[in-house]
Amino acid sequence: MRISFPPAAPDSYPWEGQLRWSKSERKVARKAFDRALNQELQEVIQQAKQMAAAIKQPSDLWELEHHLTQRRKEIDHKYEYRASRLGSVFGTLLHEGRLAEEDLRGLREDKLKAIRSHAEFLRTRDEPI
């Protein structure tokens, strides 16, 4: 059995949530992504140096190892550079204050709208009930 789908309407995307990134938008996205990732990694380095300087006993060493493992997992999960995920990645970074809208200047409005929407969703989710 063969399933056929109707053609996409003009100015729409074949799949819900799929955004197409132009070459110039990919440059803007990569620069913003790398800047936010580097900033977060620098914070991890500083935290690790502080924790390492405070090591007094073997258990402190394992605490540092545990901390670094957790941070690596969090960062690996958060920073996923795939076109299909960039809207939510940038929305998360915007919500956390790791990116500002100025960092995303050069993206078309459809992408900015998706990014703002995700950031707003996270903001409302974090508000107490």
Write the layout of secondary structure elements.
Elements: H1 23-53, H2 58-78, H3 86-96, H4 109-126
Our count of helices gives 4
From the N-terminal CA to the C-terminal CA, the straight-line distance is: 49 Å
- Report the β-strand fraction as a percent range: under 5%
**Average pLDDT level:** 89
What oligomeric state is this? single chain
Could you name the ranges where pLDDT drops below 50 across 5 or more consecutive residues?
Answer: 2-16
Q: What is the 3D form? A: elongated
Helix content: 55-70%
Series of H and E elements: HHHH
Tally of separate domains: 1
Structural class: mainly alpha
Biggest pleated sheet: none
What is the C-alpha radius of gyration, as a whole number of Å?
19 Å
In short:
With 129 residues, this protein is mostly helical.
What does this structure look like?
This protein is mostly helical and 129 residues long. It has one domain. The chain has 4 helices and no strands. α1 runs antiparallel to α2 (58-78) and α3 crosses α4.
Features:
elongated, disordered N terminus, mainly alpha, 129 residues, single chain
